[in-house]
Amino acid sequence: MAKRLSMLDAGARVFCSEGFAGANIDLIAAEAGVSRQTVYNNFGDKEKLFAAVVGEITDRCTAGAFAVLGTFPDHPKHLETDLTDFAIRFIRNCICDRDGKFLRKLIHMEGERHPELFASWRVGGPGKVWSALAARFARLAFAGFLDIDDPDVAARQFFSLIFTDLQIPALFGEVLSDKEVARSARIAVVTFLRAYGRREAGGETPG
């Protein structure tokens, strides 16, 4: 299992640096420190290895996202602060981590050439996470913290907002400081609450 994971990680690095067309089994085997025959024995060919790489990284990203979702503020003491802290955790652990960077680069480089593979990613990755977050937002709305007609739309918009300021830096591999991550998260949450925060009689959104 350790050797298989090593080959998958090596495959991710090589596919990200060389693209699918430029990558080959010899490069991946050398990166993993195994023989080319070992790669063939485990995965068959480059196409199957690429699919396995995308599947493995998708599974790890999804597992990481659900771990962070487990820290969602179901009973917030101060909604804006608690959601901002949650957004920071999500950015750090699911967007700016190594697997998140690998997956975004693979999608950017190969998504158009492998639409069926990344269609499965959308269902097995973001689709599951969006649904889980939507359920949590629905509970906050039921408890009186938010005013949401469609929790699924709200969940997708929340993710879009927290990723907006990160797209260009992420594309070029920049490492964001804690201050930049916190600022991005805070702006995203403030914007989200302007749209979905339940307002009191005086027009203020309750914390």
UniProtKB/TrEMBL annotation:
InterPro entries membership: Homeodomain-like_sf (IPR009057), HTH-type_TetR-like_transc_reg (IPR050109), HTH_TetR (IPR001647), TetR_C_Proteobacteria (IPR039536)
Keyword field: DNA-binding, Transcription, Transcription regulation
Residue ranges of every copy of the HTH tetR-type domain listed in the record: 1-61
Gene3D superfamilies referenced in this protein's UniProt entry, alphabetically: Homeodomain-like, Tetracycline Repressor, domain 2
UniProt DNA-binding region: 24-43
One Gene Ontology molecular-function label: DNA-binding transcription factor activity
The keyword Heme appears for this protein: no
Record's keyword annotation contains Transcription regulation: yes
SUPFAM superfamilies assigned to the protein according to its UniProt record, in alphabetical order: Homeodomain-like
Protein name from the UniProt record: Transcriptional regulator
